[in-house]
Structure formats: C-alpha cells, structure tokens
Amino acid sequence: MIKRILASLLILSSSLASAAGLTDMETRWLTAGSAVLTYAKKELKLPIDIIVQPTGKPTDVPLALGFQDGRCKLVLTMRNGSNPEEILASVPEAQRTLMIEAMVAHEIGHCWRYAQGVWHALPAGFEENAGEAAHDHAQLQELEETRREEGFADLSALAWVQQRHPEQYAAVADWMRKVRAPSAASAGASHSTMPWLQLAQSGAVFDTGLPLFEQAGSVWRQGLMATGEQAGSQRLAGR
Fold this sequence. Notes:
- It is a single chain.
- By secondary structure, the chain is α/β, with parallel strands linked by helices.
- It folds into two domains: about 1-85, no CATH class; about 120-239, no CATH class.
- It is about 50% helix and about 10% strand.
- It is built from ten helices and four strands.
- Strands 1-2-4-3 form a four-stranded mixed β-sheet.
- Strand 3 (about 65-70) and strand 4 (about 70-75) form a beta hairpin.
- Helix 4 (about 95-115) packs across helix 6, helix 6 runs antiparallel to helix 7 and helix 6 packs across helix 9.
C-alpha cells in the first residue's frame, strides 16, 4: 500500500534518467513520511506530487514544498553532496524517523493552507497592523507572511504528532524549539516560529475534537495575537 501511494505521487525530474530510481536516503525519508502522505492523499484529497531533484545547490534544504498549476509539490533535494540529515544531528538515531515524519507533516500543513485558498491570508477577525504597514516595505511584509505560514506548519506537525505519537510529543516539540531557537544570525528571520512553539509545549493545547488542521489553526490564532497582528480582532471584541 505504501509503495503504491508513493508511486502514484512520485514525479522524477525530466533530467533524471528513468532508470535511476530512488536513493536509499530518499526512500528512507519518504517511508518515514508515508503515514502523513497517505493521510494527505486518501483522507484530505490534497493535490500533491513528489518531485525528486537530481541535482541541487549546497544551500538547498532536503525537503521543501512548492506550488504549481494548482498542485502542491513536495520536493526532495538529496543528491547535491550535502548531508540531508544534518538537521537531525542532535537527535538520537532511534528518533530520527519520527522527526522526519514531523517534517513531512509540516510540509503537508503548507499544502493544506494552499489548497484551502488561504495562503498568506490572515484568518477572519485579524488584519495587518496598520501602523507598521504604512512604512514597511514589500520585503518585510513578505517575511511576516512567510513567518505566519511557518508557524501554522509547525503547529500542524505538532498536532499530527499529538494525534499519532502522543508519547513522543515532548521529544518532537523540544527538538523543534531547538531548531527554531533565535540566534543573532536568525533573529527576525522568516522561520522564527517561537511565538507559536511556546504555546504548544504540551500536546494538551490541541483540541482533539477538531479536525487536525483546525486544531493547528486554533493555536495559530493565539500566536497571531502574541505577535501583535490582532488589531482587527480587538476592534471586533470592543463592539
């Protein structure tokens, strides 16, 4: 079943010889994320393809999500001579498969937002901070929009872990906070999602009575308020 689902999703880049197949590393990552991919395809009916890049730049991340022609593209870049699992260096070997699964769930969170037609959009009742928008340039605005989407995707991954591996939640949440921890180099970067991760230190924050991405969305909205993007919400509450 897993192999059939992956085969139905997989697209090898045209420059990749059809006989090349998948590397052991690519197979390992796709197998680790197979439960998430099955859920995305069978339960959510998300329009998602897997693309394996035959080459890449040293700065490419091993797993990313793009959009093209109304479909999500889960892109694996693991043939560029770098170590795709460098991000897992601090994780015990026995837990690495779980962390890869969480990373795939993160990307599926992105795909869900895109499929819902709300990519980079704030939820109802929220609006951009007008005082900042007056003088912020387009690049800063894009950074904020990206940060919000990364926050939603991180929460999607944690909601998935709480649903499927609750006994491992603390380990995954702790690892994600370490990966996202701000530094002098990364402060203010587009992947600084600590306002959301701090809200989800325990899996109990997720309302398991809701669908998976609604669980993530509920906590995400709390994080939006913490980051100051609640002007519209405050006005609504004051009426």
